[in-house]
Amino acid sequence: MAKIKITDLILRDAHQSLIATRMTTEDMLPACAKLDKAGFWALEAWGGATFDSCIRFLNEDPWERLRKLHAALPKTPIMMLLRGQNLLGYRHYADDVVDKFVEASAKNGIGVFRIFDACNDPRNLQRAAQAAKKTGKHVQMAISYATTPYHTKEVYADLAKKYADFGADSICIKDMSGLLKPYETYDLVKAIKTKVSIPIEIHSHATTGLSVATLIKAAEAGAEILDTTISSMAMGTSHSPTETVVEAFRGTEFDTGLDTVQLLEIAAHFREARKKYAKFESSFLGADTRILVSQVPGGMLSNLENQLKEQGASDKIDAVLKEIAEVQKDCGYIPLVTPTSQIVGTQAVFNVLFGRYSKITAETADLVTGRYGATPAEVNAELRKKALAQMKYDEALTCRPADKIANEFNKIAEEAKKAGAKNDEDALTYAMFPKVAPDFFKNRDNGPVKSSSFAVKPASAAGASGSSGSASAYVVNVNGSDYHVSVRPEGTMAIAPASGAAPAQSAAPAAAGGGTTINAPVAGTILKHAVAEGTQVASGDTVIIIESMKMELEIKSTAAGKVRFLVQTGTAVQAQQPVAQVG
User: Fold this and answer.
1) 485/180 Cα distance (integer angstroms)
2) Is the dihedral of CA 558, 563, 569, 571 positive or negative?
3) What pLDDT was estimated at residue 293?
4) Backbone angles phi, psi at 480, to 5 degrees
5) Which residue in 396, 392, 368 sits closest to 380, CA to CA?
6) Which pick of 28, 86, 536, 545 has the fewest CB atoms within 10 Å?
7) Nearest to 119 by CA among 157, 92, 154
């Protein structure tokens, strides 16, 4: 039997899972020479949430990151995670955008395309697979793994056969939540091997504590490639340690041939780098067996924690994890992987905070009405009916969603140019994240954020230079949110939310005139005003769209009358902050 090959995830999934995808390129590059010499089959370094994080938080051009990594890793193929027709965004794109994005990714350094679809709908994968095949790069098609009454090893084996028929060079079993069990994995790999002859790669998070044993049984069943990550960024919501797996197979027929001493040198670099990102660390660092029920992916757990903190609801984590299982069932037993993990997770948060489906995100509505593709099983009929009514859709889609999207790259490129795009790569960045890209384009010349800036500062500050005494500290409650306020001798104030959430860009003006005040139900950013200022609205009409936890939520009027907006679009607001007045 052939030796086992290793794909290391240190440059993508490891930090996405443990530190909210915040690792900067400057902390990756010093380790690249050793990573390149190690002998990995591939290094996963791009795609997933890295693209979003680069422009949203790090002021980095993701295309420039890819070029730098490609130059620093001349021997080792760079793998990217691509969401089929969704690419890296949260919606389906027209086929011409898919073609452009895949072509640009290959040109800038991608050697292996790992392509998946959250619904496991083959129709959503075919175009991306065809585009990747044209580039001559390795095309790996992934099965999003879930444990539900619908999913069986026979279903997965048939899916692998369809992917092989598309021209896949290898198959990945993508276990986002650490749900693969050792002996079930053995049977699953054997079942797939009866249908396909191409290599199988196993991707299983360590979240539930099963992953090392799972990888060993997968190898015994015939899987040729295993995903691991360097030990200093392993376990918890991340993956099995590379060194552990290498040593487990040492001297056997599955020997990886990798040098543990070299791997330990790489681990030392990332052990030091990790310290800079302590503020983003997930608290899920051991084995969390609750995930065997909730099925939340490792990468989502750390983000879910941060999102609950922003909503002032950190104490609701257990209730949310329990609710996720119910929402997943109602959404047709959808596998939980980006973007469905985010959609289901956010909907579960809203269900816990406001009551089950009293507030449905636009993305949840699209998911249960076929706008993301066919779900594995039937969705909850009442939820679908409510979603159709909310979105004013005539019916659920049954065709490939992209069939309803006309070619759009040229239009997007024109919009992107007006927003500051300089080339086709910028246009693709804008296509993925049109709400975030314009600010990135404006600030790009300022250079990337330095990881040293993430260091947690002391909560209390000394007085101004040359003055005596320390600052006076207070906690002030504004619209239901506590803020730490430091008053310095010179009379200035430093303000930060007591919860650790980002402060609003500007405080809302006080409501006046005796009208009905409408408050933001959650913390987020005002995306758009659904009606013009002064419009006569009825109770229940949508007046504002807010973006919260990367999902869109409608804010409805609670009274009839003329609407007056208290915050402008683009403004960050806190939960219960007044955002409009009707009357």
Assistant:
1) 48
2) negative
3) 72
4) 85, 0
5) 368
6) 536
7) 92
Q: Which amino acid, 90?
A: Y
Q: Both tokens of residue 450?
A: 């330095």
- Tell me the CA end-to-end span of the chain in Å, nearest whole number: 76
Cβ atoms 206, 235 nearer than 8 A: yes
Q: Which residue has the tokens 């009916």?
A: 385
pLDDT at 459: 41
Mean pLDDT of the chain: 87
CB atoms within 10 A of CB 404: 11
Supply the pLDDT for residue 553: 83
In whole angstroms, give the CA distance from residue 263 to residue 258: 8
Question: What gap in Å lies between CA 295 and CA 301, rounded to an integer?
Answer: 10
Do 574 and 521 meet the contact criterion of CB atoms below 8 Å apart? no
For residues 501 and 551, the answer to whether their CB atoms sit within 8 Å is no
Tokens of 512: 């006046």
The pTM is what? 0.79
Distance CA 110, CA 80 (A): 7
Residue 175 contacts residue 205 (beta carbons within 8 Å) = yes
Rounded to 5 degrees, what are φ and ψ at 227? -95, 130
Q: Give the residue from 412, 434, 426 showing the smallest Cα distance to 528.
A: 434
Predicted pLDDT at 510:
41
Q: Is 176 exposed, middle or buried (0-12, 13-18, 19+ CB in 10 A)?
A: buried
pLDDT top residue among 224 and 466: 224
